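lol ok so funny story. i was supposed to be doing the assay writeup but got distracted and ended up predicting the structure for this chain instead. priorities right. anyway since i did it might as well share w the group, maybe its usefull for someone
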Amino acid sequence: LNHNSRETIDCIKTTFMKKIKLFIALLFVGFLTNAQEKGTKGHTITVEIENILSQKGSVITGLHSVETFMKGKGLQNSVIKVDGTKVTVIFKNVPAGEYAIIAMHDENDNKQMDMQNGMPLESYGMSGGTSFGPPNFGDAKFKVSDKDLEIKIRF
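and the output, tada:
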């Protein structure tokens, strides 16, 4: 390669690198803008779960719609290691609508409710208080409309 060819290649490389850096910067700014927009949509639900009797395992909590209630994972989910008699869970960016929260103390961290003869062996609770019999959405539901909420669940 002659001297002019090398200068041309160096110029192309420099221009290309500047364009790549600009693209990455714009992509990053777009990501931050999108994240900020998402952060302003919906409401925050703060859930305080009390009466944790054992310091073993984790508390698994799910925010559910009528479609997801008692059918597996919720719309938002949380797993928090137990280190006291209560935990606080925060669900963010929750749009207006009807929801229910289910929480269980997974003492052995096997990610499921342990049962014996059809009865739960681990503590659980839901929004709306305790129910006799299997939990149902009607007993646990609450409405998110125009403000943030605080909910207490007692095991």
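Strands lie at 43-50, 58-64, 76-81, 87-94, 97-106, 115-116, 119-120, 124-126, 142-144, 149-154. Confidence is low (pLDDT under 50) at residues 26-39.
back to the writeup now i swear
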